[in-house]
Every structure is written in C-alpha cells, then in structure tokens.
Amino acid sequence: MYSFMGGGLFCAWVGTILLVVATATDHWMQYRLSGSFAHQGLWRYCLGSKCYLQTESIAYWNATRAFMILSALCATSGIIMGILAFAQQPAFSRLSRPFSAGIMFFTSTLFVLLALGIYTGVTVSFLGRRFGDWRFSWSYILGWVALLMTFFAGIFYMCAYRMHECRRLSTPR
C-alpha cells in the first residue's frame, strides 16, 4: 500500500509543479508575425523580445486560466490528502484518505483536460487560420504531461485504497 502511495505522491508532486509552470509561462503557442517570431501564453504575449499583458477578456483564455488554476488547486489538496494518508489511523474508516487523494487527482486531471481541450479547440479552429506558420510550444506540452502525471497519481492512490480495503476486509474482527 505504501509503495503505491509513494508512487502516487511522486507523480502528484511532478504533475503539480508542471501544472504551475505550464500555467505561469507564456510559451503555449509560437507563431511568425510580420517576419518576427512571437509566442503567447495564458497571461501575456511576446513579439520579439518585448512582452505585453493580455488585457482582452476573451472567454476561452479565461476558461483555460480558470481550469488550470482549479486543476493546480485540486492537485495541491490531493498532495495534502496523500501525505495525510501515510499517517492514517486504522480505526478511522469513514473516510479513506487514499481514496480522497485519488478523487482529488482525478478531479485535477478532469480540469486540466477541460483547459487543454478548450485551448486546443479554439487555437486550431480560430488562431491556426489567422497565423499561417504556428505551432504549440513547450508550456502547452507541459500541460499534457501534467495531465498524465495527475492521472497516474490518481491511479496509484486508488490502487493503494484497494489494497487497504482488501486487507481490512480479510482481517478477522
């Protein structure tokens, strides 16, 4: 059980760090604009070496930002529950901390999937036509890696929960 929780905690730490880095950086998309390279993120865009805040309140950016922040918050609370799962008392059986941590990581995965799905759909259908020479960049890719890491953290914690439940049910009372 503890090896699954350790693996889940490792995946959760890496996934949460990647979520924060992907959300904070401005390399979600790169494109060529009037002969110079430009890149943009969720909070600002850069033309050449000069960066500007994105002051427009565009719905898909706001939705992507909100879902990425919610995902990072769920992953952080999952880490807290995961750390507390190591200290779980056997008599406390109403709420399983490994199960709660797994649910938080799956919720984080859902939020980051929604954020990346919205960003991908709008970027490909609208911005992809506007800029001829464009591509997704490393911040965006970090978001997808964070999705996988939070998903596997949830899987590990659910496996730890199942092992704990099988042990609990097999011991005589």
TrEMBL record:
Main location per the UniProt record: membrane
PANTHER family per UniProt: EPITHELIAL MEMBRANE PROTEIN-RELATED, LENS FIBER MEMBRANE INTRINSIC PROTEIN
Highest taxon listed in the record's lineage: Eukaryota
Name used for this protein in its record: Lens fiber membrane intrinsic protein
InterPro entries reported for this sequence: LMIP, PMP-22/EMP/MP20-like, PMP22/EMP/MP20/Claudin, PMP22_EMP_MP20
Transmembrane stretches, start-end: 66-87, 99-120, 140-160
Gene Ontology biological-process annotations: lens development in camera-type eye
GO terms of molecular function: structural constituent of eye lens
Family listed: Belongs to the PMP-22/EMP/MP20 family.
Keyword Zinc: no
Localization per record: Membrane
Bilayer disposition of the protein: Multi-pass membrane protein
Pfam families: PMP22_Claudin (PF00822)
Gene Ontology CC, one term: plasma membrane
Chain's role: Present in the thicker 16-17 nm junctions of mammalian lens fiber cells, where it may contribute to cell junctional organization. Acts as a receptor for calmodulin. May play an important role in both lens development and cataractogenesis.
Assembly description: Seems to be associated with itself or another lens membrane component via disulfide bonds.
Keywords: Disulfide bond, Eye lens protein, Glycoprotein, Membrane, Phosphoprotein, Transmembrane, Transmembrane helix
Record's keyword annotation contains Transmembrane helix: yes
Organism: Carlito syrichta (Philippine tarsier)
